[in-house]
Specification:
169 residues; alpha+beta; six-stranded antiparallel β-sheet; 3 helices; 30% helix; 20% strand
Length: 169
Amino acid sequence: MKKLILFSSFILVGCVKHAPAYPPVGGILSQKDLDVSKNRSKNLNQIERVQIEDWIKNQQESFYPMSMNYWVNDKNLQLQSRKSNGEVISYQYDIYDFDWEKLYESPKQNKNVIFGRFEELKPVEDALRYMEKNQEVTLLIPSALGYGTYGDNDQISNDMPLIIKLKVL
């Protein structure tokens, strides 16, 4: 009987799940952790930049770098007047991977949003500030400017560069 109890105890102890050790939310990371994260992001960004530039070379359409480190298929986009905070815009976009697979069936759409008061991917917001009504552009976005390390917990996986077809309504 003692052997059975001892054996059962070992089995129960072995089955206990141990929680992974993560720093607490809002906790402080060590300088080493911060450096590792910074270097990982820097290296990933460099790799993705080369991969996107290689991808562009194999396309029939031209893409042009924007100052925020993404690409757009409109050479003159940054030459158009830039919208300021407080201006209103309506837009929609579809998200694709770099195999041109559409990630969501329906486009994401926002109507009558005010610049400076809406949350959007930074490249989308940046491009919208230069776009005119009914204008369409295609954006090539590295993962760091998209959904980053965590993805969107749905169709967009971690560290996934994106293609976004954006239209002002």
